[in-house]
Design a protein that fits this description.
This protein has about 150 residues and is α/β, with parallel strands linked by helices. About 30% of the residues lie in helices and about 30% in strands.
Length: about 150
């Protein structure tokens, strides 16, 4: 019985230690930020698998959602409600493209890299429109330079 209890205690300690190592990253959804109007700040999020990303609608009228084709294989898409804080924990390594739906054409997009950018080429190949095209070109340049 003592051996079983000792094993359970060690297992619980390992689980708590791994959870404690996960970071929480805050991303603000803004009408005006350092890079101009309608932005995520930061717009390039570097995370480790298991980290939590919290999207905060600092100004009204924003949401966050994944962009089709800009997810690592096996990752689940996500979509927040408008004007509500949204938290997501990402475990699958790769690049995630996200947008604010009503401000997408204005360039309100962000790139999340979790671990290695395993799907960067596929995500970069997804056709973008409006100002989002230029913002993603800059963000992919940063991600690929860091890889």
């Amino acid at each position: 019985m003592k051996r079983i209890m000792a094993t359970l205690m060690v297992g619980a300690a390992v689980i708590l230690a791994s959870a404690a190592g996960a970071a929480e990253i805050e991303v603000r959804m803004l009408n005006k930020g350092e890079k101009g109007a309608m932005v995520f700040e930061p717009d390039l999020i570097i995370a480790a698998p298991g980290d939590t990303i919290r999207f905060v609608p600092t100004d009204k009228g924003h949401n966050v959602e994944t962009i089709k084709g800009m997810l690592p294989e096996g990752a689940k898409p996500f979509k927040s409600k408008f004007n509500e804080e949204f938290t997501v924990s990402l475990d699958t390594e790769g690049v995630y493209g996200v947008k604010c739906m009503p401000h997408y054409a204005m360039g309100m997009v962000a790139l999340i890299r979790v671990g290695e950018a395993t799907n960067a080429d596929e995500a970069k190949a997804v056709k973008q429109t409006g100002k989002a095209k230029g913002v993603f070109a800059e963000l992919f340049g940063q991600v690929l330079a860091a890889n």
